[in-house]
Amino acid sequence: MDALNFLAIAPETLLLACAGAVLVADLFISDAHRDVSYGLALASLAAVAVAASGPLRSNAVQYAFGGMFLTDPMTAVLKLTAILATALTLIYARRYARVRELWRGELFSLSLFALLGVMTMISANNLLVIYLGLELQSLSLYALVALRRDHARSTEAAMKYFVLSALASGFLLYGMSMLYGAAGTLDVNDLARRITGGQVVNVALILGTIFVVAAIGFKFAAAPFHMWVPDVYQGAPTPIALFLASAPKLAAFAITFRLLVEGMPQLAVDWQRMLALLSVASLAIGNITAIAQTNLKRLLGYSTVGQMGFLLLALLAGVVGGNTSITAGAYGAAMFYVVTYAVSTAGCFGVILLLSREGFEAEEIADFAGLGRRSPWYAFLMTLLLLSLAGLPPFVGFEAKFVVLQALVSEGANPVNWSLAVAGVLFSFVGAFYYLRVVKVMWFDESTQTVTIEGDHAMRFVLSLNGVAVLFFGILPQSLLALCNGAVLRALGG
Q1: How far apart are CA 224 and CA 205, in angstroms?
Q2: 494: helix, strand or coil
């Protein structure tokens, strides 16, 4: 039994060992040879990816440490995507961090520790383990956002993120304490059984659910818990903004699925209504406010708010306790959406990093003027990524939005769901405007920059793959969509 327990946490154990090894090894590496630490970090991510793919190959569901830790195909897909997001962060950050004196061991080790927190949250099946993973992720991200200690905007962003994230963590912890007080258990599966059996204190349960949903709203950057997003995205070093926009959203999806879908299915009517309010507010505030932005990182911040609103539509569409195939389809659509969003957003930040150079942050929309003439290939890649986020065919973002709407208006959908679907479509049209504005600036405005675009070969190659992937999975989405649907169905016991 002990061997099975440690086999289940092998990816996390390996990642912890690698993060510690990178941290210690970096003490003996000079600045001139910092690429050694970089190579160790990427090798660590590759090894962890192999270890994390085990449940995907075996299609097995395994509980460890008395049910506190869970591995299944869904956790494997989310972990692999989080590992990919971390690898993209480091690859895209190489030149940017080097010229800003951020190319240090802290960047590598803190990124690995943040990933460890994300992976712990993805596999957590116990309220305390969820909180443990959340705090490990959050503490690492606080330090990463403040990595430019001599930069006033980064310091301000780190303080805002610290204060508001700590408040959200308090909401989650208080909500979990209410759930424990109501049901007398920390185990997610036991929580569901006791709620179903009526062995709970209803008032405490409802209050706990409200606080948990509020904390989830912050982690998803959903309105009205979104005010930190544009300031932190703009103030944080661009590679850290990339990481913030991708990996933590995967963990937020995982804990939402565990806590709400698996832990409180009998309260679906209540938390689905709350998610509906958050989704409409996010779609409206995120997409409308993004129109007024001139800073591309702030625009992507408000874009995240709108995108998470669309994701919440899928999470509230699941027919809990009803037809299993409809339920799996809804949550499979949500998983597909968060995975493709993470990849598309990482590519957009990658292009910003490519255009940045020493003493110049390419984060204003005007900085992209004339990119189509300066570098047609990277303007083309940025166009692919932006159109994917806008949800236009034939890109993967269109397929992601389509399957969400399909789940929302599936057979038996109520009029509220149809209204939410209409709102989603209308605000997607609004969102398309500010994405197309950036495309217009790249291809039709006169360039104000004459400096040659630099970037190492690895970054250029990976960024090209990143851009082409959103087109490939938009034309042929079946394999990835089937993988997500199958993983969710397996997680639901199908």
Answers
A1: 23
A2: coil
For the chain, the structural domain boundaries read 2-491
Alpha-helix residue ranges (DSSP H) falling in 100-198:
105-123, 127-145, 152-183, 188-196
Q: What is the pLDDT of residues 10-44, one digit of tens each?
A: 999 999 999 999 999 988 888 888 889 999 999 99
Task: Tell me the residue type at 443.
Answer: W
Whole-angstrom Cα distance, residue 391 to residue 396?
8
Q: Classify residue 293 as left (phi > 0), alpha (psi -120 to 50) or beta.
A: beta
Helical (H) or strand (E) element with 228:
helix 228-235
Maximum Cα interatomic distance, the chain, rounded to a whole number of Å:
69
Q: Which residues have C-beta within 8 Å of that of residue 66, sequence separation ≥ 6?
A: none
User: Taking the alpha carbons of 80, 85, 88, 93 in that order, is the dihedral positive or negative?
Assistant: negative
Q: Which two tokens stand for residue 248?
A: 């933590």
* pLDDT at residue 321 is higher than 50: no
- pLDDT at site 412: 65
Query: Model pTM greater than 0.85?
Result: yes
SS3 (DSSP) at 70: strand
Q: Is the pLDDT of residue 320 over 50?
A: no
The secondary structure element, H or E, covering residue 36 is helix 35-52
Could you report the per-residue pLDDT of 210-221, keeping only the tens digit for each? 999 999 999 999
Type of residue numbered 227: M
Instruction: Report yes or no: 43 and 62 within 8 Å, Cβ to Cβ.
Output: no
Write down the residue that tokens 């993983």 correspond to. Answer: 487
d(CA 45, CA 115): 10
